[in-house]
Design goal:
elongated, FAD/NAD(P)-binding domain, binds flavin-adenine dinucleotide, D-Amino Acid Oxidase, Chain A, domain 2, eight-stranded mixed sheet, 9 helices, about 400 residues, alpha+beta
Length: about 400
């Protein structure tokens, strides 16, 4: 049970870190562990499984853009389907977004601006405003966006990690940390380190370096040992709807353009799975939803109150029935909504993916592995160089991400 590195959490983030670290240090003895029975079974499995390169912050675009470059090479292995995104704006929202959109390059960032007529060529949508629901005036159709299985991606990294000699331990739930001396009181000059971790069966694990990649559980795990991770969980829910006829939603079912759609009201978005007559709908709710590990059950009332009226307004022809629902947790890093990679003594935590961890996991894994190896800079999958300290808390240098869904 003695390792050079122990990574706690085999979600998409921990699995990516494990692979990139072992790949860079083949002789090191690395353990990846998780309380679940397989990789990616935490919030990675509960996501909407969408990816996009369309973000307001340059850092987000670097993290997602380079990761997507890597995922495109994996293709079917991770069920990658480049369906695109269609981001819809009211006239007022479009005017207010001009500063942010003006910084993007349609060619480089691979998007096109659609007017009402072009939107109507794709969607059977009601453009008119009514009550709380604004008009639909413009759209941004993003091509470097689509759908990907987060779980398949986590399992890809975990399998690649194992294939180069990494060790994996599932059904291992870390319950507590053993700190140096385990005193009830420490002096500021004491050399405090994490000497070990204890699982649910009382087994002890020793690592020279400990990496915590536990996503939404990070705060609850680290706060008791005096670490303010600055990562907070918040519940998010998704609803699967069976649709009677895909033609009630998309003009051409077999068109190359059958994108995920972000509607201009209430942060509601849909992901079409038209060959199965299903759409997945979610909503970016905020005030009223606590920043804590709350009741993990999805709430159908929430669907009927916050999502259904929006769908009814914009897609009046759509005949759909609620058939599936699930909930998970975003792990937020407030206030900038970008990931955190920070260390105290021999413990490093990586999280705060704020709802976009799958689409950024490759870059996060490379950057965290570089930090653990003491590197200042790392090349991402597309060759772009990234300064590792930019995601730290102490020397943070990122712009706030505004496009959180
Ligand atoms: C409803 C919803 C929709 C989303 N949609 C998208 C999307 O479309 N695209 C996107 O990119 N992202 C999306 N996300 C966010 C995405 O799911 C996360 O950013 C990503 O999964 C984070 O990965 P992770 O590895 O940090 O966390 P997780 O996948 O949660 O992994 C953490 C792991 O740590 C383990 N763990 C925790 N505590 C312990 C412990 N004490 N001992 C042992 N193991 C432990 C857990 O079992 C878990 O497997 C969505 C999230 C939700 C909830």
């Amino acid at each position: 049970m003695n390792f050079d590195y122990i990574i706690v959490g085999a979600g998409v983030v921990g699995s990516s870190i494990a692979y990139h670290l072992k790949n860079a240090m083949p002789d090191s003895n690395i353990l990846l562990l998780d309380r679940n029975h397989t990789a990616g079974a935490g919030n990675t499995a509960r996501s909407a499984a969408l990816y996009r390169n369309f973000f307001s912050s340059v850092t987000s675009r670097m993290l997602a853009g380079s990761s997507i470059t890597y995922y495109l090479g994996l293709g079917d292995k991770v069920q990658l389907d480049p369906i695109g995104y269609l981001w819809l704006f009211s006239e007022e929202q479009w005017a207010n977004s001009q500063k942010a959109i003006g910084q993007l390059d349609p060619k480089k960032d691979k998007f096109e601006v659609l007017d009402r007529a072009a939107i109507s060529d794709i969607l059977r949508i009601n453009h008119q405003a009514k009550g709380s629901f604004p008009d639909v005036d413009k759209g941004i159709y993003c091509r470097m966006c689509g759908s990907i299985s987060g779980m398949a991606l986590a399992q890809h990294y975990a399998a690649a990690f194992k294939s180069i000699g990494g060790k994996v331990s599932f059904d291992t739930d870390i319950k507590s940390f053993i700190l140096t001396g385990q005193n009830s009181s420490y002096a500021p000059w004491d050399d405090i380190r994490v000497n070990g971790m204890v699982d649910q069966k009382g087994n002890t694990y020793h690592g020279k370096q400990i990496v915590i990649a536990t996503g939404a559980w990070t705060h609850d795990l680290l706060a008791p040992i005096g670490i303010a991770s600055c990562i907070l969980p918040k519940k998010r829910q998704l609803f699967g709807l069976i649709i009677k006829d895909p033609a009630q939603l998309m003009v051409q079912k077999d068109s190359a353009k059958k994108p995920a759609v972000i509607l201009p009201a209430g942060g509601v978005y849909i992901k079409p799975i038209l060959d199965k007559n299903i759409i997945i709908a979610g909503c970016a709710d905020d005030l009223g939803q606590p920043f804590m590990m709350s009741n993990p059950e999805p709430d159908p009332l929430y669907f009927h109150h916050a999502i259904e009226p929006v769908l009814n307004h914009y897609f009046p022809e759509l005949d759909c029935t609620l058939s599936l629902k699930w909930a998970g947790y975003y792990d937020y890093h407030l206030p900038d909504m970008l990931p955190v990679i920070e260390s105290v003594a021999n413990l490093t935590w990586v999280g705060g993916t704020s709802g976009s961890g799958i689409m950024k996991a490759d870059a996060i894994g490379r950057i965290a592995a570089a930090r653990l190896r003491g590197k200042e800079e790392v090349a991402l999958a597309d060759g772009v160089k990234f300064k590792v300290s930019m995601l730290s808390l102490r020397d943070r240098s990122v712009e706030k991400e505004e496009l959180i869904i």
